[in-house]
Design a protein that fits this description.
Layout: E1 3-6, H1 7-20, E2 26-32, E3 35-42, H2 57-70, E4 77-84, H3 94-99, E5 106-111, E6 114-121, E7 124-128, E8 130-133
Length: 135
């Protein structure tokens, strides 16, 4: 079953990638189950942002706190992460594979105006199909 992603999120991810170029953009994917409904952009704090990304730890803490606070009311949860490859392909790199926790999180990767989704699993990344939905 494909992951559902709102059109607004796809546009926001591609815009974030374009604006960050030549550095990698990054952020947190929010929603519920396999439906991505929002994106929280974050500062890339990696010392080599042209070729690597590290989501600002405070942004991660804030996203997880907000998700915990809204869980009882059915608010958005942290589903995964986004980053761009300004000089690469929209696929996980060897560095991405080293960083991934294998926890089932969704990874969205943008490159050259293309967006792909992946599931971080214990055995590596698995490609995910997605369909655009209205917010």
């Amino acid at each position: 079953m494909p992951v559902e992603v709102t059109r607004e999120v796809v546009e926001a991810l591609l815009l974030a990638a374009a604006r960050a170029h030549p550095c990698e953009a990054c952020g947190v994917l929010l929603g519920e189950d396999d439906r991505v409904t929002s994106f929280a952009p974050a500062r890339n704090v990696h010392p080599l942002p042209q070729t690597h990304f590290e989501i600002d730890p405070q942004a991660l803490i804030d996203a997880h706190r907000a998700a915990r606070a809204s869980r009882s009311s059915g608010g958005p949860q942290v589903l995964g992460y986004f980053h761009s490859h300004p000089r690469g392909r929209a696929a996980p790199s060897p560095e991405d594979a080293r960083m991934a926790a294998g926890d089932g999180a969704i990874w969205a990767i943008a490159a050259a105006g293309e967006l792909t989704l992946w599931r971080s699993e214990a055995s590596g990344f698995s490609p995910l199909s997605y369909c655009l939905v209205n917010g």
